[in-house]
Amino acid sequence: MDKIRVGIFNLSSCEGCLVQILNLEDILLNILKTFEVECRVLGTIGKSEPYDIAFVEGSVMSIEDEMELKKIRGASRILVALGECACHGGNFLVKDFDVDEINEMFPGSQKWYSHPIERYVRVDYRIPGCPIDKEEFFTVFKSLLLEKFPEQASFTVCSECILKENSCLIEKGVACMGPITRGGCKAICPTFNRECYGCRGLNDDANIDGLLHTFKEKGISIQPYMLPSKKGEVKRS
Amino acid sequence: MERFLTIDKGLMDNFLERVMEYYQLIAPVRTEKGVLFEYISGKEEVDLTYSGHTILPPKKFFFPPVEEMFVYEYEDSGNIRLYDLLDEVSKGKRVIVGVKPCDINGLLVLDKVFTGEYNDPYYAARRKNTLVIGLTCNRPMEYCFCAYLNTGPFIKRGFDILLSDLGDKYIVEVGSEDGWKLIKFNLDLFSEARRDDVEEREKLLMKVEEDIRSKGLPYFETIEGALREKFLDEMWDEYGKKCLACGKCNFTCPTCRCFTITDEPNPDLKSGKRVRTWDSCHFLSFTRVASGEVFRRDRPSRFKQRIYHKFVYSINEIGSISCVGCGRCVEVCPAKINIMDVIKEVTFGVKPLSAKIGED
Ligand code: SF4
Ligand code: SF4
Ligand code: SF4
């Protein structure tokens, strides 16, 4: 069997998703016994190397990022957006909201941009989350090696939360984003009594108005930066 | 088989302890989250005093949220070998204690689905190796409405043994041969019930029934017809705006049984397993077919599907409605959508939605 060439690249990010992949060391080595995988991690892309699968972590924050991303796309058969930054622009986007702390710490930061990679290139698959769930990454990786495209099901964080039989944070007056957030994290935050802040992005057909209505009826106040805009993209100034 | 005995509360522990010598015991356990059904390691964990219901219904022990069905393996010769995991399922014997009448009826609904026209061997094996000890209610909770659906607080079948709390003792009704065996070998712990014990139980349950019947709901026979008339009613748009399509109502429902199937390769990529996972009709991907088409794109139609399946389509499919009035879906709904309000609105034309979305 021909070698399957896999590249893992990163643009602007904290590299936390890559650490999640490293955390899979034991089982990843197992895969190498069956498939010849050539991995290139954290280097810049070479002249014209072709890749079967490229994982791209991080968002586009500069012309350099954009050029690098386009080169990766040109050299890859399948491109996977890895993590919240690549999928949606990431936590950097907190700068776009009028949060005093951020304005003081990073004056002028509203001028920067942080774009999901899909704004520049075609993306074949997305693994959301901040950081990614390593098991989800592994499931996608295995499927792609087998030339299969795993289905991205539209289930919510709430549906995973109730499977853990957690008591609901909204009931306790906390602004939890579980009902509109795409599941797959096994509701890790609400399970540890911390509200979901939506790191996996909006679920398909997310009912934002409905959730705001629910919050209002329960007297739950929310911060402006907790609000996604209708298009599923975060609003920017 | 109508046979009544009693057991002193102090002796219940002894009985459960003896049961645990031969069976794996599943029972309600009080935790900081609420009361949950769990596997028991010591009799002191068991809590038979709970009112209302557990967070997830006992369904999770018969039709698990994630279930591995079989393992496949590519051999070097190119053949594929399958190992059915059914044998594992059939091993061991279990007793589940403290199942409320609504939940017993929930299992009877699942029986019709999984052991009726199509036999699901995994579900059937789990049902077969598990005895059910029921527990009647002394006090209905805010959202209970079993009395309108004929699923409680009185219960006639679906249990091997039925307990009712009479203060210092339980009155015990034997419901099956297997249930009788469990008692026969521990007869030293039981006494014959007196006539007034049976009457006291009757009175208790009648009181519960009365309490529930003050909620002003219609009886289930009227719901189907009303729903058929209101298929195109605007009310569904209002509920569609309110519903967050989170799926919690499906997952906590003792009768919801929809699932999806996936194949999960092992790290060697030559073997793997087929897995069945709970799914929800509220999710957009639920009606997605191979071509990518989605049949129920808008939320009102998905909301409607849950209600119509429960009270209309189910009658054709299995000969009964698929709601047992446990009230779990009301309690867990973040948007506080109340299935009793839906029923009232459909049948009486009243508008119990507190405020319409879009008007605020
Ligand atoms: S705690 Fe959050 S995620 Fe869990 S059920 Fe409630 S709203 Fe959903
Ligand atoms: S629990 Fe409530 S909000 Fe969630 S899907 Fe069910 S009806 Fe809709
Ligand atoms: S629909 Fe609601 S009330 Fe009826 S059985 Fe299901 S969870 Fe209980």
Describe this protein with a few key phrases.
heterodimer, A: alpha/beta, Rossmann fold, 5-stranded parallel sheet, 12% strand, disordered C terminus, B: 360 residues, binds iron/sulfur cluster
Descriptive overview:
- The complex is a heterodimer of chains A (237) and B (360).
- Chain A has helices spanning 16-22, 25-34, 63-75, 83-88, 100-105, 134-145, 157-163, 188-191, 208-217, and strands at residues 4-10, 37-41, 51-57, 76-82, 125-127.
- Chain A is α/β, with parallel strands linked by helices.
- Chain A has two domains: 5-145, NADH:ubiquinone oxidoreductase-like, 20kDa subunit (Rossmann fold, 3-Layer(aba) Sandwich); 157-220, no CATH class.
- Chain A has a five-stranded parallel sheet, sandwiched between helices.
- The N and C termini of chain A lie far apart (51 Å).
- Chain B is an alpha+beta fold and 360 residues long.
- Chain B has two domains: 3-213, no CATH class; 220-348, no CATH class.
- Chain B has twelve helices and twelve strands.
- Chain B has helices at residues 9-22, 86-90, 101-114, 121-128, 177-184, 195-212, 220-229, 235-242, 248-252, 299-318, 328-332, 339-348, and strands spanning 3-8, 24-30, 35-39, 66-74, 80-84, 94-99, 130-135, 161-165, 169-174, 190-192, 259-265, 271-278.
- In chain B, the strands form two sheets. An eight-stranded mixed sheet of chain B has the order 3-2-6-7-8-9-1-10, with helices on both faces. A four-stranded antiparallel sheet of chain B has the order 5-4-12-11, with no helix packed on it.
- The longest helix of chain B is centred in the C-terminal third of the chain and has 20 residues, at 299-318.
- Chain B starts with a strand and ends in a 12-residue tail after the last helix.
- The chains are: A alpha/beta (237), B alpha+beta (360).
- The complex binds iron/sulfur cluster (3 copies).
- The site of one iron/sulfur cluster (SF4) has 13 residues of chain B, from helix 11.
